[in-house]
Amino acid sequence: MYKNILLAVDGSEHSLRATNEAIKIANLMSDCAIEVVYVVDYSKSKDEVLHSQGKEELEMSRRKKLLPIEEQMKSSNLSYRLKLLHGEPGPSIIDYANKENFDLVVIGSRGLNTLQEMVLGSVSHKVVKRVNCPVLIVK
Q: Which among 108, 104, 101 has a CA at the least distance from the CA of 123?
């Protein structure tokens, strides 16, 4: 069934809920692995670099965002791996998911209203449309 799950996170509450669902699914399967992907968004990274004291502090702030997610993964006793990607979140997740042949992509939804989604587009909406495997969007 689902042996290789991609969990796309950004450190938000939505990511924590998506993490819980990915763990539930993975616990139903034997030998299921979760790859946790965090995309360093180019549009935000410039601002992060300007406001950080150095490379180490920047890396620490990114890891801090992922700490609750990593704690959930560790406490679940599941096999997982953390991967940092660089670029625009939607296309980066799509490209990585399609190249690595995942069985399932799990992603949180920010809950944009119809107008916001139409104007801005949502990462989860882009992923659903372009990834070549099933996608679970968690609200």
A: 108
